[in-house]
Sequence to fold (517 residues):
Amino acid sequence: MNFLQMIIPLNITKTISDWISSIMPETAASYTIMVVIAVAYLALFAVAGLYLVLLERKVAAWFQLRIGPNRVGPWGLLQTMADALKLVSKELTSTIKIDKFLYNLAPYFVIVSALMAMAVFPFSKQFQAFDINIGVFFLIAISSIGVIGILLAGWSSNNKYALIGAMRSGLQTISYELSVGLSILTMVLLTGTLQLSEIVEAQRTGGWLILQGHIPSIIAFMIFMVAGTAETNRAPFDLVEAESELGAGFHTEYSGMKFAYFFLAEFINMFIISSIAVVLFFGGWLSPFGITENIAWFPEVIWFLIKVLGLIFLMMWFRWTFPRLRVDQLLTLEWKYLLPLNLMNLMLMAIIIWLNWTI
Amino acid sequence: MSYFSDIYKGIKTLLTGMSVTGGYFLHARKGAITQEYPDNRETLKMFDRFRGEVVMPHNADNRHYCTGCQSCEIACPNGSIEIIWDRAVDPATGKKKKKIDKHIYHLSMCTMCGLCIEACPTDAIVWAPNFENSVYDRSALTKVLNQPGSSVLDGIED
Fold:
């Protein structure tokens, strides 16, 4: 079980894993540890997702010169907790003539694919649940599964708005998956590896990849942020749930906790897109200029979270600035602008690496 | 090559928009337009054009400007205003003169259209910025606008 490098740099996890190994046979112990890690990640990212919702509401309020949630708990810190409790206690309603099996399955597709992607991220040198050598490929594959959940939700709801929203989501994901993949590929050209921890290690000497690859890296980063915003179905690409046209799009007919799963998955997906960008462009958990490299006890996960929150703020900035695109504008942007630019950029990167012009 | 200039213009306009909203974000703490209503009840100032309810201002001697001409009652589209009037001898001239007994205003029926205030020739009724109109009994929403014992200010008809 060498892939199970479950080691958060706190001694408590080491103690727990030693203790589990001591009371069980080896196979049973490794499975137990897997379950423990899964439960820990689930709890961690459910709470993280809730606080991202709070952050989004606060940031939205400040962009619109409002105050935002400030009543539940100090500075409104318990607001989204209270919302989640309310959603848990709500009745799960459904309409007539729905496809019951698919209707109930769809939210789990979305949330599970979002949480699965979290497993491969190197939050710090030791804090990584699942370090596979095709990490980037795994991420691209997993992030496309979520759209199946959205399509199922729209199809099984027996609602025209939900179906239109789901179809738009399929269209959008198929289109923008190309740009995400190609811009990631541009960066993979530079590192020569798909393993996320090695991509981070490659940036320890020679600086972050966005500096190493200079011009094509910056272009790839811009394309990645545009396509990544589209992948997460957030404004200005939120024509999947377009409140003003489609009610709530694919989750029109969902209530209670199932709705909360879709909502939470959107924010976890935002976290994933930002994390990919941080690992591929901004050096993962490496500190800027190596300022904390020699401090042994410094939790490097803090640098990772600071960078991720910065990119999440950028995506929120997009959301509260730009108006929603029409479907034809969405496809024009992808097929006429992003894709040709991306292919040119890939060529440029290949030439730069061939001529050894990287910094 | 309008293709690349389109891309350039697109990025430029997007960044312009982001700088505008970013500017808002930076001074959101000072410039927030939110009124935290129940907390700032003492200092809350409503706007000049706010339409809360119709009132009849009285001066210090308990005099008002209403001559009882009934223009407001006629102007009201849904009968929110009723005027009970009478004739009495004016002590100054010795002639019989119309005067109001009760200016009754049904706030529960009022749509805040403001036609009564436009119709009033003497500006006897005006808008008040009071918006806390919840009561437990709807009969409390039927108000008599002229205060008891009040009378019309002399010379207002001229």
About this structure: Chain B has two domains: 2-31, 53-152. The beta strands of chain B are 53-55, 63-64, 81-89, 96-106, 126-128, 142-144, 151-152. The longest strand of chain B covers residues 96-106.
